[in-house]
Amino acid sequence: MNATAWVVLLFALWLWGKDVTEFDHRRPALGGTTSAERGDADTGQPLPDALAPLPGDTPPVGVRVDALGIRAEVVERGLDADGAVDAPPLSQGQTVGWYGGGATPGAAGVALLVGHVDTETEPAVFYNLSSARPGTVVEVAREDGSVAEFTVETVEVLQREGFDPDRAYGPRREGRAELRLITCGGQFDRERRGYTANVVVSAYLTGTRV
């Protein structure tokens, strides 16, 4: 995606954290800008080598992260009337949105999956996303029946003030098939009715199966 697309997505992330109003937000706070850069510090083992991007352009239909208790349908989302990413509505808080204007998971480039951290009344699909660690496995089911397996490389909390869109959406290494899972994080600002940061989990393709 180009620089214009980054700006659109930045605006989108600011918007879709603003609809949450009633849920008790006294969850563990995610503050600052943190990064777990490699798996060695958490597991004592190096992360696996990247797999070459998969051929074709197959949309995702589901995502599964066993370590985080995530198993969800993935639906394609575009831009709304304001030019922001049209994330799944809060009534579908257990659904993950795939930004159809970017890469498909498994193809070369950065594929983007977005989900709510909570709704008006309960935790949402990415409530546990901040617990991901380098080495966590993310499985994405694709429309052709294949499953693309990704390994988490970094977990970051990026403050919206001074937000760096290239850090959130740009490739970590050129030529790879990469995945971003993004939700709201930081502190819940009741006055603005939104979160102060975004949790950005970056992963890369390490396997595939049919």
Automatic annotation (TrEMBL):
Annotated protein name in UniProt: Class F sortase
Alphabetic keyword roster: Hydrolase
Biased composition, class Low complexity, residue ranges: 46-55
Annotated stretches, region: Disordered: 28-58
InterPro entries: Sortase, Sortase_dom-sf, Sortase_F
Gene3D superfamilies assigned to the protein according to its UniProt record, in alphabetical order: Sortase
Keyword Protein transport: no
A Pfam family recorded for this sequence: Sortase
